[in-house]
Amino acid sequence: MTKVERQKKKKNRLNIYLDGEYAFSISDDIYVKFHVHKGKQLSEEAIATIIHEDHLHRAYVAAIQYLRYRMRTEAEIRRHLRKKEMKEAVIDRIVSRLYEEKLLDDLEFAESFVRDRMNRSTKGPLLIEKELKEKGVSESDIKTALEQFTHEKQVEQAKKWLEKEMKKKLNTSYKRKKEQLSAKLLQRGFSKEAAKEALNAVPFEKDESEEFLLLKNHADKLYTKYKNKYDGFELEMKLKERLYMRGFEFDQIESYVRKLLEEEL
User: Fold this and answer.
1) Overall number of domains in the chain
2) pLDDT tens-digit readout, 165-198
3) Range of the domain at 222
4) I need a labelling partner for 212 at 20 to 30 A (CA). Which of 65, 101, 161, 239 fits?
5) pTM of the predicted model as reported, rounded to 2 decimal places
Protein backbone atom coordinates (compact mmCIF):
# COMPACT_ATOMS: atom_id res chain seq x y z
CA MET A 1 0.00 0.00 0.00
CA THR A 2 1.64 3.21 -1.16
CA LYS A 3 -0.80 5.91 -0.13
CA VAL A 4 -3.88 6.58 2.04
CA GLU A 5 -5.81 9.75 1.25
CA ARG A 6 -8.95 11.15 2.86
CA GLN A 7 -11.73 12.01 0.40
CA LYS A 8 -12.64 15.69 0.08
CA LYS A 9 -16.43 15.31 -0.14
CA LYS A 10 -16.90 12.28 2.09
CA LYS A 11 -14.72 13.00 5.09
CA ASN A 12 -15.35 9.57 6.65
CA ARG A 13 -13.92 7.69 3.66
CA LEU A 14 -10.35 7.04 2.61
CA ASN A 15 -8.87 6.36 -0.82
CA ILE A 16 -6.40 3.48 -0.91
CA TYR A 17 -3.54 3.44 -3.42
CA LEU A 18 -1.63 0.31 -4.37
CA ASP A 19 1.69 0.60 -6.18
CA GLY A 20 1.06 4.30 -6.76
CA GLU A 21 -2.40 3.89 -8.30
CA TYR A 22 -5.88 4.34 -6.82
CA ALA A 23 -7.35 0.91 -6.00
CA PHE A 24 -10.46 1.34 -3.83
CA SER A 25 -11.98 3.35 -0.98
CA ILE A 26 -12.99 2.31 2.54
CA SER A 27 -14.62 3.87 5.60
CA ASP A 28 -12.73 4.93 8.72
CA ASP A 29 -14.24 1.98 10.61
CA ILE A 30 -12.92 -0.57 8.10
CA TYR A 31 -9.56 1.21 8.07
CA VAL A 32 -9.26 0.73 11.84
CA LYS A 33 -10.73 -2.80 11.86
CA PHE A 34 -8.16 -4.15 9.39
CA HIS A 35 -5.24 -2.00 10.61
CA VAL A 36 -4.77 -0.58 7.14
CA HIS A 37 -1.77 1.73 6.80
CA LYS A 38 0.77 2.95 4.31
CA GLY A 39 3.38 0.33 3.54
CA LYS A 40 1.21 -2.64 4.53
CA GLN A 41 1.37 -5.63 2.22
CA LEU A 42 -2.05 -6.83 1.04
CA SER A 43 -2.76 -10.09 -0.76
CA GLU A 44 -5.54 -10.32 -3.34
CA GLU A 45 -7.57 -12.30 -0.82
CA ALA A 46 -7.10 -9.62 1.86
CA ILE A 47 -8.09 -6.89 -0.58
CA ALA A 48 -11.26 -8.78 -1.55
CA THR A 49 -12.13 -9.27 2.14
CA ILE A 50 -11.60 -5.58 2.98
CA ILE A 51 -13.71 -4.44 0.02
CA HIS A 52 -16.49 -6.89 0.90
CA GLU A 53 -16.50 -5.80 4.54
CA ASP A 54 -16.63 -2.17 3.45
CA HIS A 55 -19.69 -2.93 1.27
CA LEU A 56 -21.36 -4.55 4.26
CA HIS A 57 -20.49 -1.60 6.46
CA ARG A 58 -21.81 0.95 3.95
CA ALA A 59 -25.02 -1.01 3.49
CA TYR A 60 -25.52 -1.29 7.25
CA VAL A 61 -24.95 2.43 7.79
CA ALA A 62 -27.38 3.24 4.95
CA ALA A 63 -30.01 0.96 6.50
CA ILE A 64 -29.56 2.47 9.99
CA GLN A 65 -29.87 5.99 8.60
CA TYR A 66 -33.03 4.94 6.76
CA LEU A 67 -34.43 3.63 10.05
CA ARG A 68 -33.68 6.83 11.95
CA TYR A 69 -36.99 8.55 11.23
CA ARG A 70 -39.47 5.66 11.49
CA MET A 71 -39.83 1.90 11.44
CA ARG A 72 -39.42 0.20 8.08
CA THR A 73 -40.49 -3.09 6.56
CA GLU A 74 -38.04 -5.62 5.18
CA ALA A 75 -39.23 -4.83 1.66
CA GLU A 76 -38.63 -1.10 2.20
CA ILE A 77 -35.09 -1.77 3.45
CA ARG A 78 -34.36 -3.98 0.46
CA ARG A 79 -35.71 -1.41 -2.01
CA HIS A 80 -33.68 1.34 -0.35
CA LEU A 81 -30.43 -0.63 -0.52
CA ARG A 82 -31.06 -1.67 -4.13
CA LYS A 83 -31.41 2.01 -5.05
CA LYS A 84 -27.93 2.45 -3.61
CA GLU A 85 -26.77 -0.37 -5.92
CA MET A 86 -25.93 -2.82 -3.15
CA LYS A 87 -25.50 -6.47 -4.17
CA GLU A 88 -28.23 -8.93 -3.19
CA ALA A 89 -25.83 -11.00 -1.09
CA VAL A 90 -24.89 -7.89 0.88
CA ILE A 91 -28.55 -6.90 1.29
CA ASP A 92 -29.39 -10.40 2.58
CA ARG A 93 -26.64 -10.13 5.21
CA ILE A 94 -27.80 -6.70 6.35
CA VAL A 95 -31.45 -7.75 6.58
CA SER A 96 -30.45 -10.78 8.69
CA ARG A 97 -28.37 -8.55 10.97
CA LEU A 98 -31.23 -6.08 11.42
CA TYR A 99 -33.55 -8.93 12.44
CA GLU A 100 -30.94 -10.19 14.91
CA GLU A 101 -30.63 -6.71 16.41
CA LYS A 102 -34.45 -6.39 16.64
CA LEU A 103 -34.42 -3.43 14.27
CA LEU A 104 -36.71 -5.16 11.77
CA ASP A 105 -40.10 -6.71 12.57
CA ASP A 106 -42.81 -6.56 9.92
CA LEU A 107 -45.59 -7.62 12.30
CA GLU A 108 -44.66 -4.95 14.85
CA PHE A 109 -44.48 -2.42 12.00
CA ALA A 110 -47.92 -3.43 10.70
CA GLU A 111 -49.53 -3.26 14.15
CA SER A 112 -48.02 0.17 14.79
CA PHE A 113 -49.06 1.34 11.32
CA VAL A 114 -52.68 0.26 11.88
CA ARG A 115 -52.80 1.96 15.30
CA ASP A 116 -51.45 5.17 13.81
CA ARG A 117 -54.00 5.16 10.98
CA MET A 118 -56.83 4.44 13.41
CA ASN A 119 -55.82 7.32 15.69
CA ARG A 120 -54.73 9.91 13.14
CA SER A 121 -56.86 9.32 10.05
CA THR A 122 -60.35 8.31 8.96
CA LYS A 123 -59.21 5.48 6.71
CA GLY A 124 -60.92 2.12 6.86
CA PRO A 125 -59.15 -1.26 7.15
CA LEU A 126 -59.34 -2.12 3.45
CA LEU A 127 -57.42 1.03 2.52
CA ILE A 128 -54.90 0.40 5.31
CA GLU A 129 -54.49 -3.17 4.05
CA LYS A 130 -53.66 -1.81 0.60
CA GLU A 131 -51.05 0.55 2.07
CA LEU A 132 -49.41 -2.29 4.00
CA LYS A 133 -49.28 -4.48 0.89
CA GLU A 134 -47.53 -1.66 -0.95
CA LYS A 135 -44.95 -1.62 1.84
CA GLY A 136 -44.33 -5.33 1.33
CA VAL A 137 -45.97 -6.68 4.49
CA SER A 138 -47.13 -10.30 4.22
CA GLU A 139 -50.81 -11.30 4.12
CA SER A 140 -50.55 -13.09 7.47
CA ASP A 141 -48.96 -10.09 9.25
CA ILE A 142 -51.55 -7.74 7.75
CA LYS A 143 -54.39 -9.98 8.88
CA THR A 144 -53.01 -10.15 12.43
CA ALA A 145 -52.40 -6.39 12.59
CA LEU A 146 -55.91 -5.55 11.39
CA GLU A 147 -57.54 -7.62 14.12
CA GLN A 148 -57.37 -4.54 16.33
CA PHE A 149 -59.54 -2.63 13.81
CA THR A 150 -62.80 -4.24 14.91
CA HIS A 151 -66.22 -3.72 13.31
CA GLU A 152 -67.19 -1.45 16.21
CA LYS A 153 -64.13 0.74 15.67
CA GLN A 154 -64.84 0.85 11.94
CA VAL A 155 -68.33 2.18 12.61
CA GLU A 156 -66.94 4.73 15.07
CA GLN A 157 -64.35 5.97 12.54
CA ALA A 158 -66.91 6.08 9.74
CA LYS A 159 -69.29 8.11 11.91
CA LYS A 160 -66.57 10.67 12.67
CA TRP A 161 -65.89 11.11 8.99
CA LEU A 162 -69.62 11.36 8.15
CA GLU A 163 -70.21 14.02 10.79
CA LYS A 164 -67.54 16.22 9.18
CA GLU A 165 -68.79 15.60 5.65
CA MET A 166 -72.41 16.36 6.52
CA LYS A 167 -71.42 19.85 7.59
CA LYS A 168 -70.35 20.60 4.04
CA LYS A 169 -72.94 22.15 1.80
CA LEU A 170 -73.29 20.11 -1.37
CA ASN A 171 -75.22 21.12 -4.43
CA THR A 172 -77.01 17.80 -4.74
CA SER A 173 -80.21 16.07 -3.67
CA TYR A 174 -80.72 14.31 -0.35
CA LYS A 175 -80.81 10.90 -2.02
CA ARG A 176 -77.75 11.56 -4.16
CA LYS A 177 -75.82 12.99 -1.22
CA LYS A 178 -76.51 9.88 0.83
CA GLU A 179 -75.44 7.66 -2.07
CA GLN A 180 -72.25 9.67 -2.50
CA LEU A 181 -71.41 9.46 1.19
CA SER A 182 -71.94 5.70 1.14
CA ALA A 183 -69.69 5.36 -1.92
CA LYS A 184 -66.99 7.52 -0.34
CA LEU A 185 -66.99 5.38 2.81
CA LEU A 186 -66.32 2.32 0.67
CA GLN A 187 -63.56 4.20 -1.19
CA ARG A 188 -62.00 5.04 2.17
CA GLY A 189 -61.74 1.34 2.94
CA PHE A 190 -64.72 0.67 5.19
CA SER A 191 -66.76 -2.50 4.80
CA LYS A 192 -70.29 -2.31 3.38
CA GLU A 193 -71.71 -3.36 6.73
CA ALA A 194 -69.80 -0.68 8.67
CA ALA A 195 -70.67 2.02 6.12
CA LYS A 196 -74.37 1.15 6.25
CA GLU A 197 -74.44 1.05 10.05
CA ALA A 198 -72.64 4.39 10.31
CA LEU A 199 -75.02 6.05 7.84
CA ASN A 200 -78.01 4.80 9.81
CA ALA A 201 -76.50 5.93 13.11
CA VAL A 202 -75.63 9.51 12.13
CA PRO A 203 -78.59 11.94 12.01
CA PHE A 204 -79.16 12.88 8.41
CA GLU A 205 -82.47 14.63 8.14
CA LYS A 206 -83.91 15.89 4.93
CA ASP A 207 -84.56 19.64 4.71
CA GLU A 208 -87.62 19.89 2.45
CA SER A 209 -87.19 23.59 1.71
CA GLU A 210 -83.52 23.16 0.84
CA GLU A 211 -84.38 20.14 -1.29
CA PHE A 212 -86.96 22.15 -3.22
CA LEU A 213 -84.52 25.01 -3.84
CA LEU A 214 -81.96 22.52 -5.16
CA LEU A 215 -84.57 20.94 -7.42
CA LYS A 216 -85.60 24.37 -8.71
CA ASN A 217 -82.00 25.36 -9.37
CA HIS A 218 -81.22 22.15 -11.28
CA ALA A 219 -84.49 22.24 -13.22
CA ASP A 220 -84.05 25.86 -14.28
CA LYS A 221 -80.53 25.18 -15.52
CA LEU A 222 -81.64 22.08 -17.40
CA TYR A 223 -84.52 23.98 -18.97
CA THR A 224 -82.13 26.67 -20.22
CA LYS A 225 -79.88 23.96 -21.61
CA TYR A 226 -82.57 21.94 -23.44
CA LYS A 227 -85.30 24.45 -24.39
CA ASN A 228 -83.77 25.14 -27.81
CA LYS A 229 -83.12 21.46 -28.52
CA TYR A 230 -86.45 19.93 -27.49
CA ASP A 231 -90.07 21.04 -27.07
CA GLY A 232 -93.38 19.78 -25.79
CA PHE A 233 -93.55 16.22 -24.46
CA GLU A 234 -89.93 15.47 -25.41
CA LEU A 235 -88.64 18.44 -23.41
CA GLU A 236 -90.79 17.47 -20.42
CA MET A 237 -89.48 13.88 -20.45
CA LYS A 238 -85.87 15.04 -20.82
CA LEU A 239 -86.16 17.34 -17.80
CA LYS A 240 -87.84 14.66 -15.67
CA GLU A 241 -85.28 12.05 -16.66
CA ARG A 242 -82.31 14.24 -15.78
CA LEU A 243 -83.77 15.37 -12.47
CA TYR A 244 -84.65 11.81 -11.47
CA MET A 245 -81.10 10.72 -12.28
CA ARG A 246 -79.87 13.41 -9.88
CA GLY A 247 -81.77 11.85 -7.02
CA PHE A 248 -84.84 14.06 -6.66
CA GLU A 249 -88.20 12.51 -5.76
CA PHE A 250 -90.61 11.84 -8.59
CA ASP A 251 -93.57 13.75 -7.07
CA GLN A 252 -91.48 16.89 -6.58
CA ILE A 253 -90.10 16.61 -10.11
CA GLU A 254 -93.57 16.12 -11.60
CA SER A 255 -94.98 19.12 -9.76
CA TYR A 256 -92.16 21.56 -10.47
CA VAL A 257 -91.58 20.59 -14.12
CA ARG A 258 -95.30 20.99 -14.89
CA LYS A 259 -95.29 24.41 -13.22
CA LEU A 260 -92.10 25.45 -15.02
CA LEU A 261 -93.39 24.50 -18.46
CA GLU A 262 -96.75 26.16 -17.85
CA GLU A 263 -95.03 29.41 -16.88
CA GLU A 264 -92.92 29.31 -20.04
CA LEU A 265 -95.89 28.88 -22.38
Assistant:
1) 4
2) 887 776 787 788 888 899 999 999 999 999 999 9
3) 208-264
4) 161
5) 0.72
